[in-house]
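Entry for fe (ii) ion complex. Fields follow.
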Amino acid sequence: MRKFFPVQDLARDERFTQATNEERMADPRGTNIASAIRKARSTNRLTPSRPDATDAARSLMHGIMVGEIQALEGAGRTCFDFVTGEEAPFALKLDMARQCWDEARHVEISVKLSEWMGTELGQFVENTVLFAAACSQDPVLRLAGVNRALEGLAIDVFTTMKEFGELAGDPYLAFCEDWMLADEVTHVKMGSVWLRKITENDPERRKKALEFQSVVDKIFSYGGLRSESDESPILLARRFRELAGFSDGELTEIADVSLAALNERREAVEKTLASSPA
Ligand SMILES: [Fe+2]
Ligand SMILES: [Fe+2]
C-alpha cells in the first residue's frame, strides 16, 4: 500500500466538493460587498438567537463531519506511514489506532447529527486543511498540527456547539457534542504528551513542531473565528484545553493571536462600511 498519501488524492464520492483553506478564506469583498457586510455584521458567538443561526449551525456541523473523516484518515496514515520503533514508537501508533476508533464513531455521530439538522452530505464545501496538516513527513509535526492545533480548535468548537444545543433545547445535539468533546480532549492530550516525550532531547525538532502548530493555529484565527470575545463565533475553551495539556503560556499566546485577528477583522469591517454606499 502506498505511503504518504497527498491531500489531492483523498477518496470522496461525487457528493463531496473540496476546497483548500486559501480558496475558502478568499476575501469576498471585492466581488460581493453586500454579502460581506451582512456576514461581518452577523459574525458573533454562535447562539440560537443569531438571525443566521440555522444555516451557521448546519454549516459548522457539516464542517465538523468532514473534519472527523479527515481526522480518521490522518490518524490512520500515521499508523501506517512510519516504521514502528524507528520513526514512530509502537505506543504512539496504538494511540493513533485508538484515535481512529474514536474518529470513526465521530463520523457516524456527525453524519446523523447533520441529517437531524436537515443537511445533506456534501451540501457544504469540504475544507481539506486538516488532512493537509496530517501529510507532514515528521509524525511529531502531525501531532502538533493536527492533534494540538486543529483538535484544540475542535475542543473550542464542540464546547460552543454543546452550548448551542443546550440553548436551543436540543438534547441530542448537546449530548453528542459533549461526548465527542471528551474524546477530543484525549486526542489533544495525546498530541501534548507525544510532542513532549519524543522531542525531550531534541529542542530543534520541538521548536519546528511548535512553529508548525502555531502556523496552523494562525490560519484558523483568521477573521476572529475563535477567541475569548463574544464577537467570535467560537469561544476559546480554556478549561478543556488545560485538561488537554496546554500550558498557561500557550493558552495566553492563542488568546492573544485570536484577539489580534478579531481586531483586524473589526478594522476591515469598519473600513468596508465606511467606503460602501449606505
Ligand atoms: Fe473527532
Ligand atoms: Fe479527534
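NOTE: Residues 133 and 231 are 28 Å apart (CA to CA).
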